[in-house]
User: Fold this.
Amino acid sequence: MAFSPHVGSPSWIEILNPEVELGSIKYALIDFDGTISVIRQGWEDVMVPMMVEMICGGNLVSPEIEREVREYVDYSTGILTIKQMEWLAEAVRRHGMAEPLDPYEYKRIYNERLLKVVERRLERLRSGELNPDDLMIYGSRKFLEGLYDRDVVMYLVSGTDHGYVMNEAEALKITKYFRGGVYGALDRTEAHTKERIIRRILDEEGLRGNELIVIGDGPVEIRNAKARGAIALGVASDEVRRKGLNPKKRRRLTAAGADLIIADYSEHERLLRYLFKE
Assistant:
């Protein structure tokens, strides 16, 4: 499917909110998985079957349960993993087909399965079979460099556990761009949620909303951004190809209230000039 922006939008960006105030960006909160990194591409294909398996407990899987899980995972993309596992524990209790486990046990099972895929990709990176940019959305490094060169203070934030985020960001050689820090999920605290970090940046720095841009491929960070009046840039990229539009992502980002949507960063120079009104 070709990228089809609204009337009046350039071909490389979809302008959903023509009233968005650009030109004053000083800070950026950027999601990691699917927005910059594709190391965890396909995580939904691990989480959905795992959740369905836990809910059904060996019983016949109904289309209704599978649809419920897929809709929840789609809606919750970008949230802390433990929050998704808390939902799973509640769903297991509600359906009554299996004994619920502790959410942290569900998280352990999920991570164990996903990390098999992740580790294979990191090993290809370590061996030199892949370059860091081969595991990033197309053009994203140049976009980060452009923000860094404009003295934008960037924060890298993810619902994935902090240790994994640090390891994967270092493998991609991008931590140097994030002067604001790297924030992954911490066990038994919500200190690193996107909502709290957005609030902290705005409040502690005394910013107006249009001085902060939030960039992500999930509805969670987009909703959090709009709740505080920040600029919301949705990245609706095909993670398998690392570029081009993913229509499903576009729909969920539009529904979440994104001001702007891009398919990738292939037009990073134009995008930067547009965001900064240069």
